[in-house]
Design goal:
This protein has 14 helices and ten strands. The protein has about 300 residues and is α/β, with parallel strands linked by helices. Strand 6, helix 9 (about 180-190) and strand 7 (about 195-200) form a beta-alpha-beta unit.
Length: about 300
């Protein structure tokens, strides 16, 4: 949901039990109410709120349930106990690929949005799911430096950093050292001289703090991180497209979709306008300005004339 490092969350032992119990309830199985799911962090909560408001406006009764990882809700979606998820293009692609071909199956997602959508569609259709139109908005892996470091060395891209030729310490997820999308790719694709990886986590406060303090020169972050500018950090453009496409994409149960085309129409209208900058701004309103998720989502949809 790639798994990007942002999406590789260990599932709480109790979480499947919660969802299983819920899916046995009349609410989740009722044809009069649809269930929208996502992952339980600020961005995921915003996306499911956006979907919920759109579908309410289209005449549906909805309920939202956010969980620690998509592996909790995949099977209920396939059984039409859950109708819609707010998901990520490459992450869902690799999730379904691993479900179909085993945990060790090579990743099939790519940095190309259209190509990855074609792969996802084939995998999803086999288990009764349909991806709708991906939004331009992405929450992908990215790499940041301090603005001061970027300005001093005229850096705007990861290629620029590679050409700089300096030894670079990187703050990243614990498995970075063995990932093509992290240390391996930064070396092979960009020729960045990664001399050490500090396992401080993906887009973590600890990693960004180490970057600000000069303990590392590069940190792994998310493209929708709304805190970077205030901390004096800037993302270097992935100009050689090392990272997989992580467009926000609605995933819908196929059987339900056949009888509910207006739901796809409503969700696709959001996908047509939602940008990474829009999503980042909404996250900032929730996390920094302490606005309610429901208010932020509703205000955004109204500003775009969607509800």
């Amino acid at each position: 949901m790639k798994k990007t490092f942002a999406r590789i969350a260990a599932v709480l032992m109790a979480a499947p039990l919660v969802l299983t119990a819920a899916c046995g309830s009349s609410d989740l199985s009722s044809s009069s109410k649809i269930t929208i799911v996502g992952q339980d962090f600020t961005e995921g909560n915003i996306m499911t709120a956006l979907y919920g408001d759109l579908l309410k406006d289209a005449g549906y009764k909805t309920q939202i349930k956010n969980f620690t990882a998509r592996s909790v809700y995949i099977k209920p979606m396939e059984k039409n106990q859950v109708q819609i998820s707010a998901d990520y293009l490459s992450s869902m692609t690799d999730e379904l690929n691993h479900e179909a071909n085993g945990a060790d199956a090579p990743e099939v997602a790519t940095p190309d949005t259209a190509q990855t959508l074609a792969v996802l569609t084939k995998l999803a259709n086999k288990v009764g799911l349909t991806p709708l139109t991906p939004a331009p908005a992405q929450d992908a892996n990215a790499y940041a430096v301090t603005k001061k470091f970027a300005q001093a060395n005229n850096l705007t891209t990861l290629s620029d950093l590679g050409k700089l030729g300096q030894p670079i310490k990187l703050a990243a997820a614990p498995d970075c050292a063995t990932r093509q999308s992290c240390k391996l790719g930064l070396k092979s694709v960009y020729n960045i001289n990664i001399t050490a990886v500090q396992p401080l986590g993906f887009d973590s406060p600890q990693g960004k703090s180490a970057l600000v303090k000069g303990e590392v020169q590069l940190a792994q972050v998310a493209t929708t991180d709304a805190t970077l500018d205030a901390q004096g950090l800037v993302i270097l453009t992935d100009d050689q497209k090392l990272q997989n496409a992580e467009n926000l994409v609605p995933i819908v149960n196929s059987a339900w979709l056949k009888k509910n085309a207006k739901a796809a129409t409503a969700l696709n209208k959001l996908s047509a306008v939602l940008t990474t900058a829009d999503l980042t701004a909404m996250i900032d309103k929730v996390d920094s300005q302490r606005d309610e998720v429901s208010t932020v989502a509703s205000d955004y949809l109204k500003s775009k004339g969607l509800i």
